Amino acid sequence: MKTGTLITLAIYFIGMLGIGLFAWKKSTETSEGYLLAGRGLSPMVASLSAGASDMSGWLLLGLPGALYLAGLSQAWIGIGLFVGAFVNWVVVAPRLREQSERYNNSLTIPEFLANRFPESAVMLRVVSALVIVVFFTVYTASGMVGGGKLFETAFAGLLPNAAMSDYQMGIWITALVVLTYTMIGGFLAVSLTDFVQGVIMMLALIVMPLVVMFGPGGSGGDSLGQVPVPGFLSLTHGLTILGFISAITWGLGYFGQPHIIVRFMALRSTKDVPAARRIGMSWMFVCLLGSIGVGIAGRAYAQRNGLVLDDPETIFIMLADLLFNPLITGFLYAALLAAIMSTISSQLLVSSSSLTEDFYRLFLRRNASEREAVNVGRVSVALVALAGILIARNPSSGVLDLVSHAWAGFGAAFGPLILLALTWKRMTGAGAVAGLVTGAVVVAGWIALGWDQHLPGMSAGLYEIVPGFITAWIAIVVVSGMTRSQPRVALS
């Protein structure tokens, strides 16, 4: 490993830990400070924090890998996500910011749902918290896999006599750095580090495709048409109806991602939403375009220069190592770690908040002090991280596969629930519980039956978020209609 790369990474790690210490002094005295940064995020920080925590390692590993293998038709995932994110900012963001504060200053998504539907408060808090902890453990594991793959590919042999493999070492280093600043600084540390990491990710995704195409060995993009994959540059070649639906419906997941929509709750005010939306969507457009460019241009570069890549999800790592000065390579590796760690930290904090507010304070210590609750939250962060490390032990795990399952689980369980809770005054608590359970169960069952890969009698599968989202929506409407005698709630 080149010294310059290690120096850059060391500076990055120290910077993240420094932000954690800064946040520790600012907003960890109360649960609201630790879990929502006192509802004081600026539009710039909130939007980039939402984006960075959203994109995770799949932006620099999973999506480029899919494009590297199959071509531009895989870009429909990114298109679906962009549309979904925009609708999320327009529909969910302003309503959730206003209503979460109005309903007894709710600090977590389960707490908001319980305050919105008091007749089913306990059931909603428990079930939603269980869904959050289970799916986020899997989601966190995807980030650990990304860290493991980085160290396995880029840092191979750095410590040849170590007791663990390069992959395992990558998992532990990634986890320990994230754990440290998250446990110390809480939501403010996570949001500020996300902001910095979002800037790093954007810069890397601007630079990388340009250098790959126009730098040495890149041929200015002329080799894009030489890739021996039929329809490599076509958005529609080989795309079936099921494949198109499965790709474009990734956007449905946005409405139910607790680690993203909690940023809306932390904004300074509803008036900041339009500015945050403009910043966040601009950032997302640039990053998705860059990620698509890495996969497409990376495959052309590999073809032109006779490079063989065993794992397509490591194309970003390979290009960073081959094409850049060691100091810049370290910056690009930091961008990948930024994508991974920004998401892990957000997921750990949301899981921790559910364990603390929706289990510990609800069942074990109702009168727990603010300091005690913050400390329990820190312990919960560590427990969820350890569970994620255990799941990520298999180096053959696919980042995109793990992310897709967790994304679908949240999108189906919480998506219809959040949308209707914010916009439909005739929804009831029983309907909310029915939708939450139905979405989670259908997604889990769909995956267990393998129908996400192959539907019965067909060669292709359907992304599990589609049946999960539809059945959850139907369950909410039907059950709410059957229990409509309960008190209605006025919505803004």
Automatic annotation (TrEMBL):
Protein name: Sodium/proline symporter
InterPro entries to which the protein is assigned, alphabetical: Na/Glc_symporter_sf, Na/Pro_symporter, Na/solute_symporter, Na/solute_symporter_CS, Sodium:Solute_Symporter
Pfam family, one: SSF
Reaction it catalyzes: L-proline(in) + Na(+)(in) = L-proline(out) + Na(+)(out)
Function, as annotated: Catalyzes the sodium-dependent uptake of extracellular L-proline.
Similarity section: Belongs to the sodium:solute symporter (SSF) (TC 2.A.21) family.
Keyword terms of this UniProt record: Amino-acid transport, Cell inner membrane, Cell membrane, Ion transport, Membrane, Sodium, Sodium transport, Symport, Transmembrane, Transmembrane helix, Transport
Transmembrane segments annotated in the record for this chain: 6-24, 75-93, 122-141, 169-192, 199-219, 239-262, 283-302, 322-344, 373-392, 404-422, 429-449, 461-482
Gene that specifies this protein: putP
GO biological process: proline transport
Protein origin, superkingdom: Bacteria
GO CC term (a single one): plasma membrane
Cellular localization per UniProt: Cell inner membrane; Cell membrane
Membrane topology: Multi-pass membrane protein
NCBIfam families tied to this protein: Na_Pro_sym, sss
GO molecular function, one term: proline:sodium symporter activity
Keyword Lipoprotein among UniProt keywords: no
